[in-house]
Each structure stands twice: as C-alpha cells, then as structure tokens.
Amino acid sequence: MALKSFRGGVRPAGGKELTRGKPIQFYLPKGDLVFPLSQHTGKPAIPVVKKGDPVLAGQVIAKADGYNSANIISSGSGKVKAIEARMTTAGVVDRCIVIENDGQFTLAEGIGTPCNYQDLTDKEIIQKIMDAGVIGLGQGVTGVPTHVKLTPAHPEDIDYFIANGSECEPYITCDEQLMAEKPEWVVGGLKIALRLFPEAKGVIAIEADKKDAIEAISSEIKGNGRIEVMPLKVKYPQGSERNLVHAVTGRKMASDDTPENLGCVINNVTTLAAVYHAVCMNEPLMEKGFTVTGDAVANPGNFMVKLGTNLRELLEAAGGLKAEPKKVIIGGPMMGMAITNLDRPVAKPYNALICLTEDPVEKADGQLTHCIRCGRCARACPVGLVPQMLAFYAERKDYDRYIKLHGLDCLGCGACTYICPAKRPLMQLFKLTKGTIAHNEAVQAAKNAEKEAATV
Ligand code: SF4
Ligand code: SF4
Questions:
Q1: What residues make up the domain containing 206?
Q2: pTM
C-alpha cells in the first residue's frame, strides 16, 4: 500500500546517519541551570522564588500566569543565584531564574511516586499535566501548553488523536530514539490522552524510515484496538499539523481551520512521554530529548537533558568540537535558528544543537540571482502557495496582494528556500512580511480603540 503523505514538500539531505540508533545518554549538568520565564505561548510565568532560596529538583520556581501560560520547574537542586535578564535560546533577552546547581539533583517530596491514571478523574489528569508545566515539545512548535491542547471546546467531536513521530527535519533523531528505546512512555502518554477523548482513535504517525521506532511502538501497542501506527512517506515538512491531519485523515485544513475543528488533536511523541511522566510518575517537566550533532561535533549523540543546561556544557558532553563550525543551529536546519553564542540554556521548545563545518546555504548557494521563474518553489510548497509571487509582492511591500495570495498561510517551513535554484531567501522574507503585517494590524487596532474611546 502506498505510504500516506501530502502534496509538495522536499527531501533535504539527511544528516540523521550521524546519530541514528545512538542510545540516549542521560546527562546530568554540572554548571548553573537557567530557566527563561517565557518558554511557552501565553504570558511569562511569575517567579515564586527569590535570590538565595534553596531549591529542589521538581519544585515549581515560576507559576503560570493564566490558563495559556505554563509553570517552570527546576530540573536540579541548589539555590537561586539570580533572577535577571539573559539572552535565551530564542535569541531574545528574557528574565531568567538562575539556579546554582549543587550537583545532587535532590528531588522535592512526592516526585517520582507512581500513580495509576485509571484512578484519576479527567479533571485531575489535566491538573497534573498543568502543574507539571508540560508544553508542546516538538521542533518548531510554539510551545502551546499541553493542558490547553487537551481541553478543546468540543472534546466529543475529536475522532483522531495523532501522536506526531514524524521528526522530518534533517539531522535530528532524538524523537526516533525515544520511540525506539522508551515506547512505553509514548504509548503510556497516548493512552492517557485517549481517556480524555472517548470517541477518538489514536494514530502514531512515524516516517517510514524510522524502522526501529516503528517496530518498538508496534510491539508496545499490540492488542490495543484503539491505537495504530501509521508509517508515512519520508518527506519534509511531514510533521507540520496541516500535513499530518491530511496524511492521517484525508481532511484538508483551510487557512482558518485548526486541527481541532477538523476533529483532530496532535501532540508530539516527546510531549506524550512528558504527559506519561507527569500523570503516572508524578514527575514534572524537568528534562527532554535533545540531539547534539553535525560534522563539527566530535561525538554526535542523542541525550535526555535537564532543562536549563548550558548548551556549551552539553556540546562538551558530546565530545566538544573536532573542527571549527561555520554554522551553529539551534533546532533543525530547515526551521531552526543560527546562533553565535552557546552560553544559552536548553529550553522546552528546542530539541537539537547542530554544528556544521560548511554553511549548507552558502555551500549550495553560488550566487543569489533574480527569480528565473522555474516554478520549483510552487511545486514544493506543502500549502499550495506560489512563493515566487508572494516574494514579488512582499519585496514591494504590497501587503494587500500578499494577503490575497494567502501569504499568511505560509508555515515558514523553508521548503521553497531549500529548492530555489536562484537561492532566494523566500521563507525569511515571508516570516518578516508576516511579522510586519501583524505589527501593522496591532498598531491599527490600537489606533481604532483610541478613536473609539475618544468618541464615547
Ligand atoms: S516557507 Fe511558506 S511559502 Fe515556502 S514552502 Fe513553506 S509554506 Fe510554502
Ligand atoms: S524556485 Fe526560485 S527561481 Fe524558481 S520560481 Fe521559485 S523563486 Fe523563482
């Protein structure tokens, strides 16, 4: 049977061979742990500790500010060294809680106590996930708190719960390894999620080349009539919500659709593992899967790393650099961000550090030229956009036409940039344009509100 997938997309060169099949190393950091207060959508969390306070691993150090926000949990023990502005992994300055790590990782009371989720009410399950500070942990996802995703307006309309195990970005293999080594964590989280959606079928969607992961998960779900593994075609961006919904259900997402109004809830497999730990082990979100890789890294590998760990320290744990990197990326090479300073912490939404001796864009580049109207970008776009036309209007700041051509539906996946023979930075231009349009709309809304207030 043909593997399910979506229209468009690209097949970027792998890089996964550097870490594929390498066992997860559970790394305990030695240095300070740094926790930015904005690691999720919604308002920044509010610190509930102050400088000098002793802290235990698993302790809430910042409380969610509202339902769309998320708790921040200390992943280590020690004392609060500072609460100060620091550069975060997202490349912005944010207030951060800095913990002087005593290296003991002494757990707060009750952390790690097993609990049977069957004995809990749905409300208690959601509360545990909320308390644990779990958010979407998939690459490129904006960190929506998981309790929000698990409480849609009409849970009875959800007929698919999709566990996203596609991990379609090149180089990254931490999800794949998690599924292969710890399938019980992923399936355990999915079983809990399915309790909340009695009408839903569980589908674990995995790209077909992740054979060990497919085998391990298939064996874990044996005999469970509600859960199936669906191998998907290996293609980028297979893991975007729009493409997953289409591949799994055949339903097409329009620009104003959400997975929920098409009857689907999607969680990354790492998120489901965190749900399992939160509910069944009373373990809040303290660590996550992380790949350190690239041809400049001495010993690329997959890690389970404590949140707040310094990236430079983690790189040393992977043997450090064996060559001078020309490009260092946090996240995947398609949607991640180039960084120049490694003194940043591992935060919830990030899953890889990639150090490359050649800049893939520069290498393939040659010269940036004018569009040669080859149409490759339009064939690659998974949303069905015409990137060369969007670029034409974006460059001329003709935002009305950009919007009319559905430019706001751009996923920012970078498939068009990757395929473009003229090496035009299309995705970067679209990100900038969408940001400008959002900014202009916010300014206009504020002016309208001001005008309205003046006429009352
Ligand atoms: S970045 Fe946007 S325009 Fe380009 S391929 Fe992806 S969705 Fe299409
Ligand atoms: S792929 Fe590049 S050169 Fe070809 S049509 Fe698109 S923007 Fe133009």
A1: 16-21+115-280
A2: 0.90
